[in-house]
Amino acid sequence: MSTEKDYQISPVVQESIVHNSRTLFNFQSLTASLFGVCAGILGLESYTGFLFYIISTLLTCILFYALRIAPSSIASGKAPFDTSRYFRGAFEFWTSGLSGGLAGFILTWTLFYGLVRA
Fold first, then answer.
1. Does residue 20 form part of some domain?
2. Is 14 exposed, middle or buried (0-12, 13-18, 19+ CB in 10 A)?
3. Burial (Cβ within 10 Å: 0-12, 13-18, ≥19) of residue 111
4. What percent of the chain stands above pLDDT 90?
5. Which terminus of the chain is more exposed, N or C, with fewer CB under 10 A?
6. Where does the sequence pass through the membrane (predicted)?
7. How many distinct structural domains can be found in the chain?
8. SS3 (DSSP) at 75
9. What per-residue string of b and e applies to 41-60 under the rule 16 or more CB within 10 Å gives b?
């Protein structure tokens, strides 16, 4: 349990965590749609399309972490891959994009696959 002194040293503001989560969700939804466009244009089908989505989403999370969270974590002396200061938990950060953007990915994937192959 955190004490008052811990909150003074490293304050965690709920509004900031909610804002960060919303920003990450918007970013992952946008990139999922863009990955759907890419998969549709490339003509990917079945498992290869879903594998493309999973790999590209995880790569996006790694790039987001490397560009946004890692520099500030290193500067503050936090452990690597510790996202608890900015998000509700590590699980939310690393896996929320897989389920949150899946519908947008499938929608744009089938749309552009049909447009290109028709």
1. yes
2. exposed
3. middle
4. 38
5. N
6. 24-44, 50-70, 91-116
7. 1
8. helix
9. eeebeeeebbebbeebbeeb
